[in-house]
């Protein structure tokens, strides 16, 4: 598997084995890891020094293991609006995912994955590549919880439309959705048009990232 081009990255993860494993994996695929650090303060310093294209960061890091990584990412997104960020978490932390989408979803690539996805090399590297391209990528387990929280208009959707909506929210393109569901791209486009119509979301915005953010915003129960 090859990504489109080598990336310049900074990694922030306090678990040494996971951090070093990600470094080796990313380097194996031709990417340049500019720094690999273990806490939020070091993440801020490394990104400010090296100006990477993408950051891979844990949500919870020393000293308190609460939201140090998330707070560092928020600061960096304000300082560098074009910075792509892929955040990792041990558990599904829905609020953190929503806050990240609010902070960066419309300005640069944004991803939120469970750490267990790193063990699937293809899935992890695909997420890295898509986030670097400016796409919003959300872990399927988080998407499932967002869908479960939201009723009302979602009940208007057919089972197939709900499948398409979940894949949209995960950041997949129409082509990828068609491949996953073994249907034509024209069929996917028709399903998406129906979804946006039923959810009262605009159907005329061609930007994939904005489309995903609009769907996630609606699922959170806010005005799209």
Automatic annotation (TrEMBL):
Q: Show the SMART domains listed in the entry.
A: HTH_LUXR, REC
Q: Name one Pfam family in it.
A: Response_reg
Question: What InterPro entries has UniProt attached to this entry?
Answer: CheY-like_superfamily, NreC/VraR/RcsB-like_REC, Sig_transdc_resp-reg_C-effctor, Sig_transdc_resp-reg_receiver, Tscrpt_reg_LuxR_C, WalR-like
Provide the HTH luxR-type domain boundaries: 150-222
Supply the name of the protein.
Response regulator transcription factor
Cross-referenced SUPFAM superfamilies: C-terminal effector domain of the bipartite response regulators (SSF46894), CheY-like (SSF52172)
Query: Which range is the signal sequence, renumbered to this chain?
Result: none
Q: What keywords would UniProt list here?
A: DNA-binding, Phosphoprotein, Transcription, Transcription regulation
Q: Which residues carry this modification: 4-aspartylphosphate?
A: 58
Q: Which residues form the Response regulatory domain?
A: 8-130
């Amino acid at each position: 598997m090859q990504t489109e081009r080598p990336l310049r990255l900074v990694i922030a993860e306090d678990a040494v084995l996971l951090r070093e494993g990600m470094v080796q994996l990313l380097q194996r695929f031709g990417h340049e890891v500019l720094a690999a650090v273990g806490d939020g303060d070091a993440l801020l310093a490394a990104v400010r020094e090296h100006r990477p294209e993408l950051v891979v960061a844990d949500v919870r890091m020393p000293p308190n293991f609460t939201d140090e990584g998330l707070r560092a990412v928020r600061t960096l997104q304000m300082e560098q609006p074009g910075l792509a960020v892929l955040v990792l978490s041990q558990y599904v932390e829905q609020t953190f995912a929503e806050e990240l989408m609010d902070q960066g979803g419309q300005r640069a690539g944004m991803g939120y994955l469970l750490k267990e996805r790193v063990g699937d090399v293809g899935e992890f590297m695909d997420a890295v590549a898509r986030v670097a391209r400016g796409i919003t990528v959300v872990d399927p387990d988080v998407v499932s919880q967002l869908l479960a929280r939201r009723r009302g208009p979602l009940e208007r959707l057919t089972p197939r439309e709900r499948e398409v909506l979940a894949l949209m929210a995960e950041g997949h393109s129409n082509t990828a959705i068609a491949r996953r569901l073994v249907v034509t791209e024209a069929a996917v486009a028709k399903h998406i048009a129906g979804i946006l119509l039923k959810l009262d979301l605009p159907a005329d915005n061609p930007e994939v990232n904005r489309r995903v953010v609009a769907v996630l915003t609606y699922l959170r129960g806010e005005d799209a």
